[in-house]
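> Could you send the Serine protease hepsin-like prediction when you get a chance?

Sure thing. Input:
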Amino acid sequence: MFHFCFSKCDKGQIIEVICQDCGRRMLPEERIVGGVDARQGSWPWQVSLQYDGVHQCGGSIISDRWIISAAHCFPERYRHVSRWRVLMGTIYNTPISKNVVIAEVKTVVYHSSYLPFVDANIDDNSRDIAVLALTKPLQLTDYIQPVCLPTYGHRLADGQMGTVTGWGNMEYYGYGGPFVASDVLSKTSRYRLLGVVSWGTGCAMAKKPGVYTRVSRFLPWISTAIRVSDAG
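Output:
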């Protein structure tokens, strides 16, 4: 099994190692460019986060029990955890595929220093990151797979291509979703979650870049959030 770790903290200490296959697409690859529909199973870590059955944000599977998304997807009006569901195993944000799984949410942990939740008048989207614990482990399939987390400090190399996935108009439906890029740090090419869609105007518009939370900066926070939640 491939292993990923939540890498190293600032002091160079190993935080945690989890043995788990990740970042592989089990079905034939197909690029999506310019809004072309993806094939079923193309991006098996992509999920739809739904509140009362309505799609609110995207997210990514990072283990059989944890999802990562953006903090801003969980304003106060959406904090009844029992009303959240995670839809996965499909390229549609409605449960119309035979491969779809709908999971219940046990816990939502968003970054405590996401400032708009401290003061709604603050226009600062730094630390726009959250993790969700599922009530029970997922059964991984060709259509449901975790993405690999990056190594600590991992950056996109100059000229390296990355991919953002989501549903429909990325200005809304892509929030919280994955920005991934492949690498060959292991013997086979795997996709790593380099960013979480935070905000932007439209998708791939000239002079209007999308803004992403850099996941590699928050590996210690992710590890702590998971460890504290599991301990509770």
